[in-house]
């Protein structure tokens, strides 16, 4: 069963309707607003914790652990990044921005737990 250990959260203004996007990966847009992450190389800032409409407060977690929505099969320990719709997918691509590592296995559309650690993935 997935859980969520609260670490650090930040609130920004939702720059789009995020009312059906709880536990999706989010990015900061050019004005500082919060929107769904669109790729593994965007300005990923965390995982959305609430369900704000456009213009409302969007709370996202960037440290600790969080539930996240799977966009495919993810193995325990896999590095996780954003798909084009903000869902979490595993990655081994050098230079991708990762949101963290999977603490549970998941399949498409599962909600699972990750340990947050936002960073560039570098493969030696």
Classify the oligomer: single chain
Our Rg estimate from Cα atoms comes to 13 Å
Strand content: over 45%
Stretches where pLDDT is under 50 for at least 5 consecutive residues are: none
Characterize the largest beta sheet: strand count, sense, and whether it forms a barrel. 9 strands, antiparallel
Please, what is the average pLDDT?
93
Query: Count of DSSP helices?
Result: 0
Order of helices and strands: EEEEEEEEE
Helix coverage percent of residues? under 10%
Distance between the termini: 34 Å
Strands, count: 9
Structural class: mainly beta
Explain this structure.
The chain is mainly beta. Helix content is 0%, strand content 45%. The chain has no helices and nine strands. Strands 1, 2, 3, 4, 5, 6, 7, 8 and 9 form a nine-stranded antiparallel beta sheet that branches. A hairpin with an 8-residue loop joins β4 and β5. It is globular, with a radius of gyration of 13 Å. The mean pLDDT is 93.
Topology:
Blueprint: E1 6-13, E2 25-28, E3 34-36, E4 44-48, E5 57-69, E6 79-82, E7 88-90, E8 97-102, E9 111-120
Antiparallel strand pairs: 1-5, 2-3, 2-4, 4-5, 5-9, 6-7, 6-8, 8-9
């Amino acid at each position: 069963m997935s859980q969520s250990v609260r670490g650090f959260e930040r609130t920004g203004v939702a720059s789009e309707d995020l009312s059906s996007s709880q536990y999706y990966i989010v990015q900061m847009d050019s004005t500082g607003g919060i929107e769904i992450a669109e790729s593994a190389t965007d300005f990923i800032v965390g995982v959305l914790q609430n369900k704000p409409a456009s213009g409302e407060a969007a709370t996202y977690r960037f440290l600790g652990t969080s539930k996240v929505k799977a966009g495919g099969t993810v193995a325990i320990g896999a590095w996780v990044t954003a798909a084009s719709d903000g869902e979490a997918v595993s990655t081994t691509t050098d230079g991708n921005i990762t949101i963290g590592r999977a603490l549970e296995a998941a399949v498409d559309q599962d909600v699972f737990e990750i340990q947050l650690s936002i960073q560039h993935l570098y493969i030696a």
